[in-house]
Amino acid sequence: MSYPFKEDFLWGGATAANQFEGGFNEGGKGLNLADVLPGGKARLKLLASPGFDFEIDEANYSYPNHEGIDFYHRYKEDIALFAEMGFKVFRMSIAWSRIFPNGDEIEPSEEGLAFYDRVFDELAKYNIEPLVTIAHYETPLHLIKAYGGWKNRQLIDFFDRYVETIFMRYKDKVTYWLTFNEINGATHMPLFGLGFSPSSEEARMQESFQGLHHQFVASARAVQKGHEIIPGSQIGCMLIYAPVYSYDSNPDNVMHTRREADLFNFFCGDVQVRGEYPYFIDRYFEENDIKIEVEEGDLETIKNGTVDFISFSYYMSRTDKKEKTQEEIGQGNLIGGVKNPFLKASDWGWEIDPVGLRISLNELYGRYRKPLMVVENGLGAYDEVEADGSINDDYRIDYLREHIKQMGEAVKDGVDLIGYTSWGCIDLVSASTGEYSKRYGFVYVDKHDDGSGTLERKKKKSFDWYKKVIESNGGQL
């Protein structure tokens, strides 16, 4: 069965600088958040607990993000592989601290700017469109330690300078931009998105929503600046999206999940797409004693800086109910809830729900009527290299096939879907656990959790499968 994807549908893959670039202390780059996050299961504890000290402790931890998969030196080889698959678009991020090592300098690093010039030129050689995330869990460490991250309003001005610098530099090379990666995940893990560790669990929501307000203003300014500097540019928001199902038909549970969906899925989208705080947030702020400081002109800036399109990550759905015991919580499902009896889970406990992607696309398009792009979707799994060197990741092919089928159904539903970039098109360091062993890619990278490996690239079975998907514009799955 073929699906009516647009003729110019943007098929490709997605990455983030902090997870695959490496070269953490090369080219004049300063330290950023990812550089101080240890690898392994210790990372999840740090992400969830207040009081992280943002120091590197090599005596007790490893830091896989420092090397990533060495895209910094191997970008030509990797981009050639993406071109062989037929990528129309490649989602990547710019490391802020490669452009402004501390984040608060007046002048940028020419060496950092020149690196991305080379990357964009290499992509252009193969007619691959860059889709650039401006801030993807990469707050410069100095802005975290000296200013307290996005809790501090001064970061709006620092971000302004960074944004204007890269827009001016790459205005002839990049059309598609995203402001903040998975912006709505910040209240769950402020360390990632907002660049601070909460002062206490009690203060987490107050501090997070204040930080989010600063990001809303910064994002809106970036949209306006981008339209001025790059005529015809398309600047989007980026959400982590998970439809929320009620565990049963109990109206109390239905109402609970409705409010959970409002807060997680729609709060940030309403601000960035509609240009205003949504109706339901006042009661939430009042009941949780959250009082954000809004300066004169902020709401007007937000209103005038709405995005051109909506991008989102989709990995799982969430099932929930009002009252639940610890035993009922779905273990490993990053965004919580209870176990869904109708769904199987990945090796990391993330419930697999292809139909949830169709639901998500319909919910987002029905609410906002803006073009949509799925910019992260994929299966983190243990891959095994066979004796003959092959990597037979049929489980990944099955996962992606079923999700792409549901995208096609959403297009037939009338959703305006413009692109799809599978997450981790080449193996990289997991954001949540700092592991190499959680592999997503069509390309296997010989690098392991203990630090061993040659960094050699190998095509998995899914490589040729995805190549055919792109060649057929989603007609051959």
Gross morphology is: globular
- What do the pLDDT scores average to? 95
CATH superfamily: Glycosidases
- What share of residues are in beta strands? 5-15%
Family: Belongs to the glycosyl hydrolase 1 family.
Keywords: Glycosidase, Hydrolase
Protein name: Glycosyl hydrolase
Pfam families: Glyco_hydro_1
Written description of the protein model:
This protein has helices at 17-20, 42-48, 71-85, 96-99, 110-125, 141-147, 154-170, 190-194, 204-229, 251-274, 281-287, 298-304, 354-368, 394-413, 461-471; strands spanning 10-14, 89-93, 129-135, 176-180, 234-240, 244-246, 309-313, 318-320, 372-376, 417-423, 443-445, 457-459. It has 477 residues and is an alpha/beta fold. The chain has a single domain (10-471), classed as Glycosidases (TIM Barrel, Alpha-Beta Barrel), CATH 3.20.20. It has an 8-stranded parallel barrel with strand order 1-2-3-4-5-7-9-10, surrounded by 5 helices. Strands 6-8 form a two-stranded parallel sheet. Helix 14 (394-413) links the parallel strand 9 and strand 10 (417-423). Helix 3 (71-85) packs parallel to helix 5, helix 9 crosses helix 12 (298-304) and helix 13 (354-368) runs parallel beside helix 14 (394-413). The mean pLDDT is 95. This is Glycosyl hydrolase. It comes from Halolactibacillus alkaliphilus.
